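Intended use. Records like the one below are meant for learning the mapping from a protein sequence to its folded structure. Do not use them to infer anything beyond what is encoded.
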Amino acid sequence: MRSAFRIRLLSIPGLGGVVPAGIAVILWSLAPVLATLARHVPPLQLTALCVAVAAATTWPVARFTGTRATDRIAVPRRIWLSAPVLIIGAIGFYFLALRLAPPAEAALVTYTWPVLFVISAELAYARRVRPPSITGAALAFGGAGLVLMPSGGAGPGVPWSGYAAAFASGSSWAMFSLLARRQSVPLTGIMPRLFGLAAAWAAAGHLLLETALWPVPPDMALTIVLIGAGPYGLAFLAWDTALRRGRSTTVGTLAYAVPVLSAVLLVATGMAAADWRLPTAAFAVVGGCIVASCPERPRRPASEAARTS
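Structure written out for the chain above:
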């Protein structure tokens, strides 16, 4: 009875993508708090260590989920070249943003990427952007922007370099998601190897550009393990699964919940101040997700419209 109910539940259109997307959203919402605890580690060094942990964490999962499928299909060379670069960009720029800007605001700027993903996915597949996607994205983006208002005004004290790094991270996320979405084979089975390449390239950049923090303090080492295993390990596999099984619009807009959840966690841990904007932003984000995930109403032919008028 339970197995039949589970099969029937997963057969609901889009639900197979919503569940793993929800797991990824929860794990990603922990990233600002954990990354703030490790902010004294240089960004590229932190990226290399976290991605190395992610490679070790995702390897056993990939062996049971996607390796056999990808072993039978030749993976395009562009995947091996572009995916590790996008992983480094998404994670490295995010760590840099958290060093240069307040964590809650940096997370909000980073998570403008679902707008780019939803619109770019619809342009890639349908060659147009649906009006519900534009409306929902505007509502969710505007709601998330409410939390940015306290320090979002112009002036010399605004950490624009941190916000620029956060936007670069978000752009990398959007491009990685679109890359994963458009592949004929899931990336799940090769994610450990992609993580390994990204860790090697990030380590090389670290040796060239940064001064190492070594040895890493034990508390930061534990934080690095948690970041690599969760937000940048299992979350990647869950997100790739969500992109495969769910609608691009629904999955993409679900990510709008991440900055709100992250802000709540930052407030709960004393890393950010609370005000009325958080519940208002949460309401707008959820409303935007609902609007953007609604199917567009089909246009009636002119002859039919004339008969009913």
